[in-house]
Structures are given as C-alpha cells and as structure tokens.
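Contributing new records

If you add data, match the layout below exactly. Sequence lines come first and carry their own label; structure lines follow with theirs. Keep one chain per record. Anything else will be rejected by the validation script.
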Amino acid sequence: MGFQTAITIVDAVKKIQRRELVLPAIQRAFVWNDDQITRLFDSILRGYPIGSFLSWHVRSETSAQFKFYEFMREYHEKDNRYSKELDVPKGQAVVAVLDGQQRLTSLNLALRGYYASRVRYGKKNQAKSYPARRLHLNVLREAAENERGVKHDFRMLAEPVTQPTDGSAYWFPVYQLFDASDLGELMGMLASHGLGNNGYASKLVGTLFSAIHSKPMLHFYEESDQDIDKVLDIFIRVNSAGTVLSQSDLLLSIATAQWNKRDARKEIQSLVDTLNGPEQRFWFSKDVVLKSGLMLTGVTDVGFKVRNFNRGNMLRLEERWDEVSDALTVAAGLLGDFGLSAANLTANSVLIPIAYYIHRRGLDEHYRDRPAERDDRAAVRSWVIRSLLKHGVWGSGLDTLLRELREVIDKHGANHFPVVQLEERMTARGKTLTFTPGEVEDLMDSWSYGSPAIFPILALLFPHVNTRNVHHIDHVFPRSLLTNAKLKKYRGYTEDELNEAIWYRDSLANLQLLEGPENIAKKDRVPREWAQETFSAAGYKNYLELNALPDLPGSIDEYLGWCERRYHLLGQRLAKLLGTTWEVPLEQAP
C-alpha cells in the first residue's frame, strides 16, 4: 500500500466518468447535504486541503466475488437516492474507493450533475418539491459574515437562475468549468456571462478553474492486498472517525455479490425503512435485519463473520427473503401493538426471536388481531417486556442466546409461544427472567418520567390497557400543580417533605397510562374531581382497581400520603407479575 501521484479534481471526476473509479458495496449511500457540498467547494477555492483518499486496487480474480456501484451523478432525494450497480466485465480489475466517497460524489454531482432535495414545506409526493439544483458561485462579492465559516458564497440553485439587478450578485454556473479545457475557453465563457471586464469576477473564476483543472489536490493511498478481511478492517478503521459504520454495512458487500436475482443492499434498506416507518416508529438497523436473516434461514452461527456470509448462506437468504421480510414486518408490528417504539424499546435485538417465532409458525398480519391468539400474544408481550426490564439479557453473549432461543422455538413453538421452556433455557444460560425483591425495588425507585424503561414497566403493570391505541404517560396528580413554589404555598412542607414530594412527582407512584383524548380532557385538573365527573360510581371503582389507585387525592394536602400508599400498591403488583414478593413495608416507602 502506498501513496499514488496526486491528481487534479478534473482528473478524478473523469476517472469516475470513465468508471475507472468505482464504489464497493461496503460503502454507504450518499448522505451529504447541499451545505456540505458548498463548504467543500469553499475549501477548494481557498486552497485548503480536502483530505486524502483511500482506494483499493481489486484484481480481476477478486473483483468477480463482489458487486460494485458507479458514483452518483444525479441525486434525487425521492426517486434516486442510491448509486446504480456497475456491470464489471469478467476478468477486469477495478479501483474501488474505500474512503472519500462523500467528497468524490459531491465533486461529481457539482461538476457533472445535480442535487435535488425536498424544499422546505414541500409535499413529499409532488415532483415540484424536488427541483434539480446545480452549483453556482456569486462572483461579485464574498459571502456575508456567517457562523459556517465560509468565505465564498456557493449555492445550489435551480435553473434558470434569476440574476439580481442591483449588482449584489451574479450566480456563475460552476459546472461549466468542467468542460472548459484551457484559459482561452475560460475567457470566452466569462465574456458570454458579461464578466470579461470585471477584474474581481475574472480572478475569482480563474482561481477556481485552476484549483479544479491544474492543482493536483487529491492524494490517493492505494491498498493492493486482496485479503477481504484485511480490507474490511482497514475500511472500519479509516471510517471510525466519521459516521459510525455497522458491521452489516461491511458484510452487505458480500451478500450483494452472492445474490442472483435481487439487489441485497436495496432490499435490506427498503425493509429497514418499512420497519422504521411512521406506523412502527422504530430505529432498527441493518445489523438487526441481517442477523435476523441468518437466524431465520437456519445458519448455525448467527455472528457477523465473513465465513457466515458464504455463497450458500446468502443464496438461501435470497431464496427466503420474502419469508424473512414478512416475519420481521409482523414482529415489528406486534412490538408496536405492545406500545413499544424507538423511544422506549431499550434493546432492538428482542425483535429477532419474535420474528423467528412468527416464521416458525408461519403467522401473518392476522395474528396481531385474531381473537383465538389473544392469550398467545399476551404471553409474548409479557416475555418481551420482562426481558427488556431484566438487566443484561440482550447484552453480552447475544449470538449464543439467539441460537438457544431458536432451538427452543423449533422444538416447542409449533403451536404456541413456549414461555416456560424459553425461560428455563435462559436461566441455564445465566439470563434468568426471575426478579429478586431487590430488583423490583430498583425498578420502582430507579426509573422516572421520561426514562425509556418507564413505558414497559407501566405496560406490564397495567395489562388491561390496549396499547395499540395512542397512550400518554400521564401524571395522576398533574405535574404543573406540584412545583416547589406551589407545594410550599399550599402545604408548607419541611425541606425533607418537599424533597420527598418532588421525588414522587415523576416516579411510578404518580404515573398511569391514559389514552390520548382522555389525557387531553383531564388536563391539569385535581384527580378526584376529574375522575368523579368522568366515571359512574361503578366505573370509578373499576378505574381505581385496574390502575392500582388507593382512591384519588382531592387536593395537594392529600398528595404525599396518597403517593406513599400507591407506591406500595404498585410495588406489590409489580412483584407479583415478576414472580417475587414485595418486602418494603408501607411506612418505609420513599
């Protein structure tokens, strides 16, 4: 590996144009925005270094094992976000860019193509919301003082550009410089824009022309080793200072190369987008999807290792992709039905065994609603929530745990979710779902309003709540009535009592799940007053029992004593649900 002779920007873009520089599938999609593109060109015009580049000389026998993509030229946020696959002729070597994709793609877009992103307030489904914009430079004056630190006013503008008549700007199309072969053509170009006699504009454009055409600014460091594990390691290291790369991003190159009929990268990204869409509201990564693929297709070792992404395994994944995709979609929907989302799902890996169970039984979307499966769904829900609340279940040893869970589901999960057998195997692996009294106390005391684990705890405490509907985590006694000033004014608490009252305010003792409209109607009203107006006598009694409420406080004077009683009731209920006992006497509650 060594540095190559530095080349100019135009030389690099022409190599891209001739497909002499390509992208390996391990590279992510283009993600830079227009501000990053214009900042890059400001650096170029100012003569600043724009970093070195790392390439990989892929010999013909190695290139046949992978898929490659051409650089993006015409980016469209809605219709063209991904690079096109490149059909590399058999026996042809290529030079693939390992580090510098975003910068090189930006150069290619700015000098040869366009950038179309949605305008502010533009509707996503309307073509006019995505105007094709090209790079322009104000050649009459520098940029106004700004916090971005840029000196020159580069902008991505839709054409035709309306030039100001007050002399404040002239927007010169930077992309025209790419095709200008010499200074003579440059001078003619300036004259055609009416800038031939403008000394400032001529000098500025001339400097940019020289930076693009004449100065060897791009330094490539080329790796020639054909060992893919070494190349992947290099790729991880050089990219670790930027956006964190998941292991799946790297191994996708192998998966993509092995699939015959589908584009693995597009299929997997599309599924990720579906799982994380507005209906589900999750943040599942490609790692979760790929590991699920290994799990659901029966690959013995589900770890992210190159040997697990061999041709046989990847072809099996391609053949069963629709099954994998369907199972993950149903499983994500089920987690959403449980009221989980990106805001409160503390371990994304819990999706994988649920998807495997869905796949094992051949279940579809109707499982989420079928009355006959109500008890089975309740068993899944309880297991999921308890596994999220138990520390360490989804941490270290994940791959081994997943293999063990798969074995249990294969053996016992043909007709129902095998909770007992799963928990027995987990206990044997040191990942028990049995809680001690001390752990119950920690759950009661350690989590408060706004914490990710609060919703799973409340969902476990109140299984009667239909979490498929939109629910709010509601303060039983309104938070707005429990400020320090109001507590002191209405009760005259001592310092210790005040601290205790404030602690209880956002603790489990003062929280419940209310459907959105009900919570909005409740607003900041005193709890007893609201409940008695909302429910009949029988309904009020039922509401108290379902939500473990020892009556409701009718004023701030009753608040602290009420919190102590409810804290105790919730602790008893939580302990029972978790299969243990509550050992905190009422008088010792915080």
